[in-house]
Input
Amino acid sequence: MMDQFIAFGIVGLSTAAIYAIISSGLVVTYATTGVFNFAHGATGMMAAFAYWQLSVGWGWPVWLALPVILVVLAPLFGILVELLMRPVQGLGDAEKLVMTIALLSGLIALARWIWDPMEPRSLPSFFADRTPFHIGSATVSWHQAMTMVIAIAVALALRVLLFNTRTGVEMRATVDDRALVGLTGANPVRANRVAWVAGTVLAALGGVLIASMVSLDAMQLSLLIVSAYAAAIFGRLTSLPMTFVGAIVVGCMEAYLAGYLPQNEYLPGLRLAAPAILLLIALLIFPHRKLRGRERNLTQVPVPTVRGTIVFAVVIVVFGLMLATVLGEGDLITYGQIFAFGVIALSMVPLIGYAGQISLAQLGIAGIGAVVCANFGAEGQWWAIPLAMLVAGAIGALVALPALRLSGVYLALGTGAIAVVLDRWIFPMASLELFGQEFAFFNMGSANLVGPSLFGFHLDSTAELTVFAAVCLALATALVAAIRRGKLGRRLIALRDSETAYATFGGSLLLMKTLVFAISAAIAGLGGALYGMQLQAVAPEQFNFVAGLGIFLIAVVGGLGVVGNGLFTGSMIAGPMNALVALIPATQNFVQTLPALAGLAYGSGSVDDGVVPSLRERFDGALRNPIAMGSLAVAVVVLWMLRLADLINGYVLVLGIAIAAAAAFGLGTRRGPETYSEPEVPVEWWGLQRPWDENDEEVLERAIATRG
Output
């Protein structure tokens, strides 16, 4: 028994050594640049695949392939990442977060594009031909011994670099005050570049070392970083010794769970989710310093008008009717997902856009809604949909509890850990009995859903479900708009602007965060139920952590402060991306990288406040022009009728609507004769020289909270 315990301990220590190498690179990058690199694990994944390509695919010797990866490719990639991150160095947490998440999503898509995921690959361990040696009764391979030695060497080298060299002092000082470092004659750009190169090389080294222990799978290797995240949080993203301690805890925990965890149908996923659980516990237990390099970069959140909201809701429903009447069954299954994805994306608007609470678990919570609806709506019970929203909302309220201690990157890590726990442990779990009824998550495979029965009619066709989903998106959009217009919306904006100021003026952080997380999760649960109904059967892979990143990125690019973002995100994900693949199947892999490219464009400042606000500002004149909008509406109806009469095909319909829209917007935005405009009234004369507006109070409150 003791021999077995020692053997598992050695396995755990060898794995811990790899986690220590990877997490130390993460800490070095964050401690120097103030950027938490979510793509750190994906960097190691790419290095592992590149090493496989050189050593196995092309037959290069190890002594040549390994230096090419660690000395040439990894440093070059580190320099590239530094160039990408340089524009966001002085921006807020959101921009930095979006950039690194975009890199994570993009690298996974790129790896699947280059290396076919359906083709199995494996890497031999180092010194596999040498006879293992023994420590007592435990067998130790030379690969395991080498990883431990390398981890110790990395720890010593980093200690010397950071504390005994001028470059190390520059690296540690840069994040606190770049301008001051520059005045001393140091080069902050050089310090950042060294940090990114060092972090990338360590991620690549860890990826190559661990690749022989697992299968070469892009997503699996990238998510191994969750274990490194947990180790880095042990060190509070600053202490290398505590980071190594955290790596030992994570590695040994995984090894002993693999050896001693009871074998039943409920616990196997626990071992896979254990690092994420440990990460969440570490986030909640350990005190965290103020986020390094944190900047405030708050954007204005527009207040939607009642008239505009009603018109937009009608447009959504009409759009659903058009799709349902002009598309066939197969196309409707594909493009009808616009509205389900739109509801899921809309759930981020009150949570992230209004309240500033970052969540990477929205798609996982949508999966909860799908599961609940599948279990209680198997015969079309309409009440299964509000029940799914209620259960998802309750889960969201529970998520809000750790959110009280977390913010920024820490909150993103916490919600990301929850998403990983859901897709690695909860969703694959076997069915269980609740209140005398069997409850199956995905029934160890997939969950089947049917449409609801409403007012004596059973919605079972794809066309009916598409219209139903469009109506649900329209109602959800109206709800989110009403929240923004009301007192709750003003409180959420105040919470986003300054939690301290909000609490100082008597606001309850617990109540407000619990409420907004519950509302957001309930909307996401509705989206998950609609998504399942549209496809009729869904699997846990469709609600996993990585799949949620694409929705998050498109939603951020669209603009999380506007209610129109739901339709925009759904349209982008299920519309042009699917259409491009349908027209040119060879573009499928390229299309998978588009969310990442959009995220990189947003993070670099190419898109200011989001696509939707930018388009609204650009075409505001046309949208307010009754002649232009009336002409566009008539043109759309005429083209729709022609398509229903089968006088034109779908391509002509789309092209005609595009031309009509361009003409309407061109007509509406055409400048007329110059008119006299009243001079701007100073703020102290609001209510005297011009009437007091209902939005003025919010503007003043935000100014006091952010500047005072």
User: Anything to note?
Assistant: The beta strands are 133-135, 138-140, 432-434, 437-439, 447-448, 453-454, 457-458, 537-538. The chain is about 70% helix and 5% strand.
